[in-house]
Amino acid sequence: MNDKNNKELSPCIISWGKFALDIKLIKPKNSKKCTLEYWQKTIDTILSQPKYQSFVKNRNKAIQKFGFVCKL
Question: How many domains does the chain have?
Answer without folding.
Answer: 1
